[in-house]
From TrEMBL, chains A, B, C, D:
Superkingdom of the source species: Bacteria
Keyword DNA-binding on entry: yes
DNA-binding region residue numbers: 43-62
Coiled-coil spans in chain: none
Gene3D superfamilies, per the entry: Homeodomain-like, Tetracycline Repressor, domain 2
Domain HTH tetR-type: start-end pairs: 20-80
Pfam families: TetR_C_11, TetR_N
UniProt-recorded name of the protein: TetR/AcrR family transcriptional regulator
Transmembrane segments: none
DNA sequence: CGATAATCGAGACGGTACGTCGAGTCTTTAG
DNA sequence: CTAAAGACTCGACGTACCGTCTCGATTATCG
């Protein structure tokens, strides 16, 4: 399910139309509650009360608590992934990863973490979660590497897939596991000490070209 | 809390002593249930029923479901981290990381994942979790790098801390987020494509020594 | 069961002998607790705690809460039913019924009331209860009537059985149902307005004899 | 509390209204369970299961097991006390007491007995109980005597109050204490041997009028 | 005397019911 | 037909009590 469905194919619907502004109010309430108390302690009654809505108004739009939370994250995630194009690999990485780090550091990151524990037992959630938080970000990184490759900045044998995976891993590991801050210095170190050394041509290699 | 405490400092304890064998039976039951249905769906009734115990017997030892699960993981985690010493950096890394990967791939890994969502709202759990799953493993990796350093296998400016962090991040990211398998080929790739290139002296550097 | 049995027929018993003083301490505790909170809210833990005894010490003597309570009442009941013999029907009735009323007004009466609700579902309790609180008192009343009969104080057709039943009913109805006081004026009224008119020869009948 | 109250003074109530049919279903279930296993062994789970109701549905209406049972008895009691008017004291007594005996012999009588033990520790229950099982019946008896008095059937000095008390006592003593049957012969004996002799004018007194 | 055995207080054990609370559904009035 | 409100069933929660069992310590008899 995930996204609220508006009474299907019916063209001329009868009765009071569904109030679309309630969708966002409910998602906002869900996000706030989840950021405050976590996924487990989030209750539908709490969400309904915060949005001054009835529970039926929630269940009319989403099938379950899980469904509400998935959709909330997905919707809010889709507006926050700019794709930089600075002209250099290092610039693109730096810019994209700081943006992603900032995004993860907000309430959506907290919400995402709250969902991790459910992934193994909720295949639908797993799919939605990966689409939202992994795939999109990975695709952007891939395209950054492709553009760098076209600019001939990469070593031929560079482990591109591994680099993409590592970039995400490093950030999310910090965010969810160690609890260390996802700040600019950290992003810089990931770029300078890991990503660039792993995939970019070294100075001697560049000089060899001349 | 975490580990059940047996009447503390009192030397001569009165009344029937706790049956220590119930501790393990309950932890085993908790681990099984959690691996089957996850953390959220784990109920104390289910754990009690599986261990043929009364719920009071659980609550006498652990304050809550969370406390039980923390302790279960901690106890079971402490017996599974051998520290290899093969004489070479690559050998040590390969051996240790495959062991860690195998450990994470079992039920304890599933249990660990189930806990991640609770970390932000349960500081005590966060501490126990990091001690169990992060610190221990990180310290082993550190010592592996130190020994390699003593054998003069590392480049002087090698980002040792980052390498240690990345090793854990790469494994746990796969385990918990992407769902891709933590198999030997993956560990090999992490070692060959990431860790060794980042910290070890390259062939030319070694030859420079001669 | 009812009364604590002391290891049956064995003549030479080994081991530490049972401490007979605990019996009364436990019965006393049980009576106090029951008078305070009633039968339902009486817990074995509370009785044990009040007597500073272990629960096993109770269960070694009585099979169950019910058994303990039955025996407690029975034991305490047996020492309180004097049989008057004043030489006149009215005197005997007055004396006996005031004694019985006083007895019922104490803690034993409260305890007895607490047991009434269990009678239909506990045949053994019912038997013990009737033996203790009904039969004994009824037999005394019967003998009082017999002696009066021998003294030729009764009308030949006097409903002796009904009188006996009514005497008990009147007292216990007040005690347990209406809550009105079981005081001397009430006993007097029962004797003067009910029992004597029902069974004793009237003045004119007595005069007829002359 | 006793009777479920339906949101008091509010005129326009919001939300789904209480399902009044659940009240009776729950009372019926409570009565059945209590008649089967007694008050003490009655569990809320059993009542809920028998009525296919959630426990919350019970607790929404009644504060406790005791409250439920009180209300159950009260409700069911109010429909079973016809007031006879046969034109003669003996006829009225006979008819009323057989009706009351039959009423007490059913499940409601069993339920009433189950409550007796709680009266001393539950003032509210005591009030409700007396209203239901004592006052109503006593008032009917009083009116029967009044009508007999108006018909000049009573002796002037007849102990009217005592007669009323004895009638109830005799029946309830049998029902709850001795366990003897509350059958028609017994009622007849009570009327003929006790009540009529105590209060009605004797034949000689009647003849004196002529 | 030492060994044996049943007692004692204390409290852990398995089990059952408690009264509360949350999930997801249904039913009312109001718009 | 949708909205808010809240009652509905179901099931897990953490607690309390029952009746049993197990501990160390004590107190008797037996050999």
């Amino acid at each position: 399910m995930a996204t609220p469905v508006y009474s299907g194919t019916r063209t001329a619907q009868r009765g009071r139309p569904r109030d679309a502004s309630r969708d966002d109010a409910l998602r906002q309430a869900a996000l706030e509650v989840m950021a405050e108390v976590g996924y487990r302690a989030l209750t539908m009654d709490a969400v309904a009360a915060r949005a001054r809505a009835g529970k039926a108004t929630i269940y009319r739009r989403w099938e379950s608590k899980l469904d509400l939370v998935i959709d909330t994250c997905t919707q809010l995630a889709h507006r926050n992934l700019p794709e930089p194009d600075t002209g250099s690999l290092e610039g693109d990485l730096r810019e994209f990863l700081s943006g992603f780090a900032a995004f993860l550091s907000g309430p959506i990151g907290k919400a995402a973490q709250a969902l991790v524990g459910e992934l193994p037992h909720e295949p639908e959630l797993a799919t939605a979660f990966r689409d939202t938080f992994l795939t999109t970000q990975r695709d952007v990184l891939r395209r950054i590497l492709e553009r760098a490759d076209e600019r001939d900045e990469l070593r031929p044998e560079a482990p591109r897939g591994m680099a993409v995976e590592l970039a995400g891993a490093a950030l999310i590991y910090r965010l969810m596991l160690t609890g260390d801050p996802l700040d600019v210095p950290f992003v810089d170190r990931v770029v300078e000490q890991v990503l660039v050394p792993l995939v970019a041509k070294g100075p001697q290699e560049v000089s060899e070209l001349t």
